[in-house]
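Q: Hi! First time doing this. I have a protein sequence and I read that you can turn it into a structure. Is that right? Here it is:
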Amino acid sequence: MSSLTHADYLALRRFPALDGLRAIAAVLVVFFHYGGPDRLQGWAGVQMFFVLSGFLITTLMLREERRTGRISLGEFYLRRAFRILPVYFVVLLVTVVASAFYGTFVSNGIGPALKYFLTFTNEFAGASPYGQSWSLGIEQKFYLVWPLVAIALGTVVLRRRAGAAALGMLLALVLVNFTTEHSNPGWPLHYFSILTGVVLAIALHSPRGFALLRPLTNRVAQIAVAIGFVAVHLSVKPIAGFLDGTNGIPGHVLVVPVYALATAVLLTAMIAPGPATTFLSTKPMQFVGERSYSLYLVQTIAATIIAFFWPALSGLGQSVVVTALGLALASVLYATVEIPMINLGRRVITRQRAKSGATQQGAPQAPTPQSESSRLATIGQAQP
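A: Yes, that's right. Below is the predicted 3D structure, encoded as structure tokens:
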């Protein structure tokens, strides 16, 4: 069976299997929160989104530099703002208004935590109806800092010293963690997942790095990798239990690096055509994957509605019904907020290019995964 070539990889305009990966991870998270089998450990599956974020964002920057010779910082931040902020603040507003209406604004924790949600320091907020958004604090800081680091170092240098750069950032985060008092020890390790995606993107963009990883893009290897990843995922709980308390760190935190590396291997295999890619690219997977960001944000609202009308529901039935209602609500947000705001962001960028005369009509156009990026589902992680 032939493998994907580097030229084929650079020519890809989309990574269709990623919709399916997001769909699976999003449903696992909801199941973990609302009655799903504990063995699934959906909290770990959401690490996949961190790896995807690092991979896709870095891939876009590398391909933009390859196409235009530079990285537009302003356009990057505009794309992220129009993609992430509208739905985030709509769901936050609904949660705040509903809490105030029912007189639970302070007692349910949303009031005291509001300052964290408004400043994207979500990972340090206490329990509240919007607590599932805590990883967006981590994601937003990555979006803010990583492009600056990439430009400051120069992407050519970055490509050659990606491992050192990622390790340095991780060590800095760990140092900050253990020298600062806060309520969430271990949070820097979640950046390991994002940085794993960053390093993967740099490796695949490089002909030499791609050559090392190319065997994973074989159709037969894709099946083996998919089976191996399922085995790793189902092993999360026993491994976490074995490691629990090591150096005072919870076991589920120590599992994160292992899971991130397994996700990177899976992602590499899924960029190529194959049976697993075909499955992950089906219409149902695409449907859920495109709405996965909104699904994650509205899961608490969906669960609250279900609990009001069907208080006795529990277990697997609860997780299925909450997911179904969450998808319905997410579809409304996808159609009325996500897509219109993404399109508005594109128009703003187009107008800015026209005003500055910085259009790229005369530049060589290398294919980019831009359509994939426009639907990048940056889902917050659920803390177990």
